[in-house]
Each structure stands twice: as structure tokens, then as C-alpha cells.
Amino acid sequence: MVVLREPGEVYLLCHTGGDDAVSWVEQIDPETLETRRRSPDLPGGPTWPGGLAAHADGSLYVVFGAHAHRLSPELHVMASRALPRRRPYNSFVVLPDGCLAMKDFAGARPGSDGAGPSDGLEGSELLVVRPGSLEIAATLALPEGSVARLSADGNTIYVVGDTTLWRVHWDGADLALDPEFAPHYRTLPGQTYGWDAVIDAGAAWFLDDGAGSERFAGSFVGIGANDSPLHLVRVDLDSAEVTLTEVCGLPGGLVANPPAVDPERRIVVGYDSSNAMVTAWSFDVPFTACTPRWQRQLAHAAHPLRFPASGQLVLNDHDAARGTDQLVVLDIDTGAELGRVDSGSPLQSVVFGAPGWANDVYLCSFTTITRVWAA
Of 25, 66, 306, 373, whose CB has the highest number of CB atoms within 10 Å? Predict the structure, then answer.
């Protein structure tokens, strides 16, 4: 993950692999991308991509493996905490009061042959950690395991569970599961769990058929084994009604990231990384259905980047024949291609980039950090 702090300050979260991995943070030059400074190695644990945030208190916060850390802008360690479960904690969200909400990852990891954790622990546990001290302020046992990263709208946290979308309220002291909201989205034979939810336009939007991401070997193309076609899932936040819309209708789909939602233009963009297809739909307000708008063959797997003012959508297209990942800019309204360039990464990006300050973007994969700008 790459994040930006003050103008000119770019930070990159890095890590090793395995069950006893460490992480570290580098501050890199915003143009040359050379390392300016590096944190010490940070205790981690079982590997799954974690998270990094530039916090309003001036600190940087890292969650990776089974640990959380607070760093100064100069990358000195200010606080560290071991988290309760010996599992990866895959990133976090910062709540309005500055607290960090996080949970353990209950999915399959590389080498597990598709099996989830074998530690005997049930489901997943949601934590709220206070900034500064990293004191655990509250915990909540979730009704089922969750693979997806958390989402939040104010003090309301959304968790995409294995079969159900859960809503949890934070009051500054405690967590409470919403007993009136438990929409079941996994209803079809062969359908597998959902990934991260975008909370916008009155709904939670996410993509299903997430099982199989642990088989990543440089690209997701052609490795999906889910029987049910991959869907854009929309869950209405008022009625809890679930709408499933096929991305391309093909079996063997796979995804590991969220869709892109443009509430002003009323467009949502989803993708199937295994079948290398990207689809956009129009939606109406009040919502009745998603209507097909455009579709393109693109081998995209990373977190999309949307630029609201220009309507530009930044995706990736992995060229396996040439052994490179490409950045592609589309017009979100029409799907027209506005430009593309090689990123320099031999691996398909499946992680998180960031918009820059000057009509540019920072992209990262498991091997490479890239800056791309428009002249």
C-alpha cells in the first residue's frame, strides 16, 4: 500500500512473507521514488496484505500480521501492540474520533489448499484500538468469519462476512451489532464470499466469488474456480434488499478488491479478474436495477482509482505475454480508453495505489512502485 501525507510525503508499506513475516515503512521521494528513510523492521506475523494510514494526529499507523504500530513521520516507532489473534489483520478503517477499527482475516492463505484458519477459533473478531496508546477499547465477536477489508460510514462499520453483510455501531466506548440488519447475499449454488464494500449512494456495493485469491502466482487471470458467475452485489442500507448482477456471466470468476462507485454520474464499475472483464452499469435513484453501460476486456485486479471531477477511472491490464502490468485510464462514462502505459511491474497488481498531487497516481504491486502522470 502507498499513502500520501503532507505535500511531498509519500510512504510505502512493505513486508516479507510466510507465517513470521515482518513489515516496514519507507518514505520515498515523490518523483524519483528512491527511499529517503526507512523504519525499523516491525513485528508482524502471518502474511496477508495489511494497511497503512496517515492519521489526523500526525502519526502513521500500520496494521500487518498480528500487530499494530504507531510511527512518527520520521518513521520512529512510537508504540506497538500484539493483537489478540494469531492471524493476519488485513488493514483497518479510521473512525471519526480517530480510533482504528480492525479485524482478523478468516480466509485461506497461500499453501492452505483453500482451507481457512486451522487455529480452532470461531468466526472473526472486530476490534477498536485507540490512537496514540494502541489500547484495545472494545471487541466484538462477529457471527461468522470475514475475509473482506472493513468499510465504515461515520461510526457505522460494515463487515462483509462469509455469507452475510453485518452492520456494527461504535458509540465511542463500545461496539454493538445491529440486530435489525443482516442481509444474506450468498444465495446461489457455487457462489463464494464477497470482498471489500464501497459505502455510497445509499448502498453497500461489493463483488463476490472471492474464494481462490490465495492461489495468486503473478496474475489472477484464468485461475478462478468458482462455479457461480461473479456478481456485483448491492445491499440497500435502508431495506437490506440484496441485488445480484452478473459481471460477465462466465464461470471461474475471481476477485480480491472492491468495485468503483460514481454517485454523481450514477455509474458503478465491477470486474472479474480471472476472466479479465470489466463492466459498468448505470443505476437509478431511487434504485430499481443496474443497467449495462459498457464492457471491456481488461485483466484488472487492483483497487480502482476514480477521479470524480474528470470522470477518469484508473485500472490495470496485465499483459502476460509481455510480462508486464499496464496502467489504463478510461472515461467512466463511456469506457473509452484515454491512455495506457507499462507500469514496470512483472506481476499483476492486486493491492492499493493512491492519487498524487499533480494529475498523477502512485501504483504498487508485490514487486514494484510506479508513478504515472499526465503531461
Answer: 25
